[in-house]
Design brief:
single chain, alpha+beta, seven-stranded mixed beta sheet
């Protein structure tokens, strides 16, 4: 039976520990970067207190060996580790100030990608084309969250996750990375004690906006991506779900590993056949049985994510031509996604994000073989 546990942004580790003690799970699957960070911090705290042996063992079982934890959120260290494994990566360097930025820009050239550690969803990434743009981006990315923004989110959205970093005034570590011209790609894996049990590799066809989440993906086979994720899982003795982002270089199709996401991603639930069913691999790891045979949810290679692609473009051809990943068996969830999607689309529109198309046409979402129907008009 599913139970919800209270999360308090000002006491996250206590919230996580209480939930773990109450639920007594066999495995923990973090759904976002913040959850993984909290699990890493909880592990360190319980280890220091020498009182949480069971919790520490559970976190190790779920995520892998603790020696890997610091590297998962340190982009430069992760890139160096990948390079040591002979994996193709763009040159990356930490920039602490404007002088560092000037040196890196001379060495790497423009355009340049600046990334803040501990951010996700494109919020901490800037592609800059001049030194002036780079200096402005550096100041923005290093700055801790504004208290007004954190307070607004806490009061209006009941989301207190920004309060702690805002109050502590901790500045973000920013990395500069060589810009690789090409197409974005992503891999999501389930691994166990350093071995990859299942993997999905996709080319990104559409994104919610230029620096945001993927909205449409195309399933691909890419030998270099497969080798890269296998090497990194083995190098850090990882367990659980992990996502890896790549750039497929234009004209060569060489893959450049650019980032790791130490959590499940939005495609982790997709069952796409032998070796491509991550939930089945999870079951095998926890139960000790072999990976069970499973039926593919679709023969289509293109996946339109819900509600991302609907938010991006209600008139998108992919909503008809691709497999639209709508959880029809959870009508309350679908309704909530539609409601939140309306608000999210309005938020993007107010910021004039160029990759987001708007539509004044009403959108009707109807499953062909489902017991629920959701109609939502785009206002």
């Amino acid at each position: 039976m599913l139970h919800a546990h209270t999360y308090r942004g000002l006491a996250p580790l206590r919230s996580f520990k209480n939930a773990i003690v109450a639920a007594n799970p066999d495995l923990i699957v973090p759904g976002d970067d913040l959850a993984t960070r909290h699990l890493h911090d909880l592990y360190r705290r319980e280890k220091q207190r020498n009182a949480g042996v069971r919790i520490c063992k559970l976190i190790e079982r779920s995520l892998g060996v603790p020696e890997s934890f610091p590297v998962m959120f340190a982009r430069n260290a992760f890139m160096q580790a990948a390079e040591q494994q002979h994996i193709r990566v763009p040159k990356t360097s930490v920039v602490e100030n404007v002088d560092d930025l000037k040196k890196v820009s001379v060495h790497f050239g423009f355009p340049l990608v600046l990334k803040a550690d501990g951010t996700s969803g494109g919020t901490g990434v800037r592609v800059v084309h001049t030194l002036e743009e780079a200096e402005l981006a550096l100041r923005t990315l290093q700055a801790p969250p504004l208290f007004a923004r954190a307070a607004k989110r806490a009061l209006l959205d009941h989301d207190t996750t920004l309060l702690r970093p805002s109050l502590m005034r901790r500045r973000f570590v920013v990395n500069a990375q060589v810009f690789v011209q090409g197409r974005e790609a992503t891999s999501t894996i389930f691994c166990w004690k350093g071995s990859v049990l299942a993997a999905l590799h996709f080319e990104v066809l559409e994104k919610i906006h230029a620096a945001g989440h993927a909205a449409v993906l195309r399933l691909i086979d890419h030998w270099e991506m497969s080798v890269a994720v296998e090497k990194m899982a083995q190098r850090f003795n990882l367990s659980g779900f992990y996502g890896f982002d790549f750039i497929l270089e234009a004209h060569t199709d060489n893959s450049y590993l650019i980032e790791v996401n130490p959590r499940t991603t939005q495609v982790g639930h997709l069952a796409l056949g032998a070796g491509r069913d991550l939930p089945a691999a999870l079951y095998a790891a926890v139960s000790g049985d072999g990976v069970p045979a499973s039926q593919k949810i679709t023969e289509a290679e293109t996946i339109a994510l819900f509600p991302q692609e609907w938010i991006r473009d209600p008139g998108s051809q992919f909503l008809q031509s691709a497999y639209h990943d709508v959880p029809w068996d959870q009508p309350a969830l679908v309704s909530d996604c539609v409601r939140r999607g309306q608000l999210q689309r309005e938020w993007y529109a107010k910021r004039n994000l160029p990759a987001l198309r708007s539509s004044s046409l009403p959108i009707t979402v109807r499953p062909e073989h489902a017991a629920v129907e959701v109609d939502c008009e785009a206002k």
